[in-house]
């Protein structure tokens, strides 16, 4: 008989792994040989650039409903798991039949992505994640066995990345930057004749109620943060990133101001249109 979902893995609440699913099979916390469904990796440690293969195998005796695009890469920082990428993914319902497996080929790079957008778009079977600093990571996905009302199961494989800490640099969109007292203005390349000028601003703040934690590995994939955070130095209180922000509303995808915490410092992020150049 196929095992019930309550017999697979351990409660996510008691696991020392990312919070994926109601119960989770997390390698090496759990022995994959003793579980009917497990996600394993061919390498427990990588030194970028390197490609690792992750395999989700279903031996449960019934189909696993899942989405091969909906994997997530996490990093553990100060005992907390933080999701790095992806930000968006397509959402087809896929089925991994009993006796079948699916593999992902993840190429890990320390170098920053050359032309990041605001979002990291997931891939189905192979792709590259750049901007990974040293530390402990986990690749994870989820799914359910049998009927659609079954509890959600998480599957994860932990591994380490042997690399230096990550340092942010501006992206290739930046054309020049200038400082006036405690304000740095960064200019980006124009996009389209009809584009409207807009600015994305980060400014230091002293406190915040509920700041959004941002890791360097997350900021590496967001050109807005790359082109502002990398210009903060002693005495700089505000950084403005100005460009022809084409076909994006609200400007830079930022509606109301919000606060982030980056490497122990608090910043308020905001954006606004500036009109035609």
Describe the structure.
- The structure is a single chain.
- 4% of the residues lie in helices and 44% in strands.
- The termini are far apart.
- The chain has 277 residues and is mainly beta.
- A hairpin with a 7-residue loop joins β12 and β13 (153-161).
- Strands 1, 2, 4, 6, 7, 8, 9, 12 and 13 form a 9-stranded mixed β-sheet that branches.
- The protein folds into 2 domains: 5-161, Immunoglobulin-like (Sandwich); 174-275, no CATH class.
- The model has no long low-confidence stretch (mean pLDDT 92).
- The chain has helices at 216-219, 223-229, and strands at residues 10-11, 23-27, 37-41, 45-46, 50-58, 64-66, 72-77, 80-85, 94-96, 101-108, 126-129, 135-145, 153-161, 174-180, 183-188, 196-204, 212-214, 238-245, 258-262, 265-275.
Give the structure's gist in a few sentences:
The chain has 277 residues and is mainly beta.
Structural class: mainly beta
The chain-level mean pLDDT equals 92
**CA distance, first residue to last residue:** 69 Å
CATH architecture of the largest domain: Sandwich
Please give the number of β-strands.
20
In DSSP terms, counting alpha (H) and pi (I) runs of 4 or more, how many helices?
2
**N to C succession of SSEs:** EEEEEEEEEEEEEEEEEHHEEE
Topology:
Layout: E1 10-11, E2 23-27, E3 37-41, E4 45-46, E5 50-58, E6 64-66, E7 72-77, E8 80-85, E9 94-96, E10 101-108, E11 126-129, E12 135-145, E13 153-161, E14 174-180, E15 183-188, E16 196-204, E17 212-214, H1 216-219, H2 223-229, E18 238-245, E19 258-262, E20 265-275
């Amino acid at each position: 008989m196929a095992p019930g979902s309550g017999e697979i893995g351990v409660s996510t609440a008691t696991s020392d792994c990312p919070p994926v699913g109601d119960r989770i099979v997390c390698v090496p916390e759990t022995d994959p040989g003793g579980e009917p469904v497990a996600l394993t990796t061919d390498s427990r440690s990588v030194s970028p650039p390197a490609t690792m293969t992750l395999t989700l195998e279903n031996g449960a005796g019934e189909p696993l409903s899942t989405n091969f695009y909906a994997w997530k890469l996490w990093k553990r920082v100060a005992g907390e798991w933080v999701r790095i990428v992806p930000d968006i993914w397509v959402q087809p319902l896929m089925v991994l039949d009993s006796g079948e497996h699916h593999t992902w080929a993840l190429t890990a790079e320390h170098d920053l992505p050359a032309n990041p957008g605001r979002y990291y778009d997931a891939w189905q079977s192979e792709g590259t994640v750049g901007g990974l600093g040293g530390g402990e990571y986990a690749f994870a996905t989820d799914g359910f066995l049998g009927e659609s009302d079954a509890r959600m199961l998480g599957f994860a494989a932990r591994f380490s990345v042997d690399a230096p800490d990550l340092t942010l640099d501006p992206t290739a969109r930046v054309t020049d930057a200038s400082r006036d007292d405690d304000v740095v203005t960064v200019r980006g390349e124009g996009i389209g004749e009809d584009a409207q000028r807009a600015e994305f601003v980060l400014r230091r703040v002293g406190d915040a109620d509920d700041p959004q934690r941002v890791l360097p590995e997350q900021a590496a994939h967001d050109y807005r943060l790359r082109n502002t955070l990398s210009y903060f130095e002693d005495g700089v209180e505000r950084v403005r990133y100005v460009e022809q922000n084409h076909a994006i509303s609200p400007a830079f995808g930022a509606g109301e101001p919000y606060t982030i915490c980056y490497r122990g410092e608090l910043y308020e992020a905001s954006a606004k249109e500036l009109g035609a150049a």
